[in-house]
Specification:
Layout: H1 32-41, H2 46-70, H3 72-97, H4 102-154, H5 160-168, H6 171-210, H7 212-220, H8 225-267, H9 272-285, H10 290-305, H11 307-333, H12 341-355, H13 357-375, H14 402-411, H15 417-422
Helix pairs in contact: 3-4, 3-6, 3-8, 4-6, 4-9, 8-9, 8-11, 8-13, 9-10, 10-11, 12-13
Subcellular location: Cell membrane
Membrane topology: Multi-pass membrane protein
Keywords: Cell membrane, Membrane, Transmembrane, Transmembrane helix, Transport
Amino acid sequence: MAPTDDDGRIAQDASPVGTADPVDTTPRAGSPAAGAAMTGARMPRWLPRAMVLALTLVAAFQLGSWAFHQLTGLLINILIAFFLALAIEPAVSWMASRGLRRGFATFLVFLGLAIAVAGFVTLLGSMLAGQINKIVEDFPDYLDSVINWVNETFHSHVRRVDVQEGLLHSDWLRKYAQNSAAGVLDVSGQVLGGLFQLLTITLFAFYFAADGPRLRRTLCSVLPPARQAEVLRAWEIAVDKTGGYLYSRGVMALISGIAHYILLEALGVPYAPVLGVWVGLVSQFIPTIGTYLAGALPMLIAFTVNPLYAVWVLVFVVIYQQFENYMLQPKLTSKSVDIHPAVAFGSVIAGTALLGAVGALIAIPAVATLQAFLSAYVKRYDVTDDPRVHGHRRRGAGGPGLLTRIRRLIWQRPAEEPEENSA
């Protein structure tokens, strides 16, 4: 019986004739389609771990970068101390082989260095103090000579009293005094910082030199035997190159100081011994510009005695520098630091760009150590005896030379000339 509605009429189907019932496309629980949909919507299991790992790496990099920038000063001090320990390693090892304890031998070496530096600073300070006192005492005479020259040249009537009063009541002098007073604290802070830095370098260098064998043993204990041999060989090369560089520079400083002392003493320049020590140390241990800095002070002192003496000092500095570059230095550094001058100059520039004055000082022994270490792993071959190796052209290559072609043009007779003569 057909279903009827409330009015007793037969209920009509709402769907049109011939259309099918709507199909429920929602995947049921437990069906394969439902599992595939849930798998596509769910986050992969490796993604949270990857995100945590990436964030951890970024945080570690930021923390390491911050710590490196904060510890840059300490790392540079440790680097200086390490090269200083390498430089004094031969002397310490020599004393230790004679029966002294390694710590006591290191103490003796540092004591000798401290006495030498203190003596040099004392002599240099006394020289500068004497020159400053002389300049202050002779300042009125200098001022009178300048005033007389100005009055005679420009026909003026300037008096020394007017100049002194103008200087004492000038705003420039007052501001300069205020700035100098304000900068006393900054200078004091820089001096204390420099002393603390020197103490840090000295302590680290002392420990590196005194505990050198223990440090090498500790470093080699975490490496396989093959790597241990390479590390020990690199360490030995670094000691030889750094120590050789220091000692060769010391010998050249001694020779340079004696030579300049003889010249200054012959010219009658005051403080000749101190100036000789100054020239020797500064010219040898400050790369590239040390020669010019070393020669400037003796020239200035000699100029106060006689302007012609300054010219003689300049000429001697230039001549001696050529003698040192082409005669003395190659013989002293051929076995210790045998690197090309262009390589040495480039290493000094690179070291200065990286670490400033410290990099310029340690650049040459560092490059010499690296060059000597890498030379053991570079296979070399015998060079053929070819003229082109020596910069000469091979005979017969490229046709006849210029002189040969000119000679042929001059002496070769034209082809038609014999016919004219025969006619």
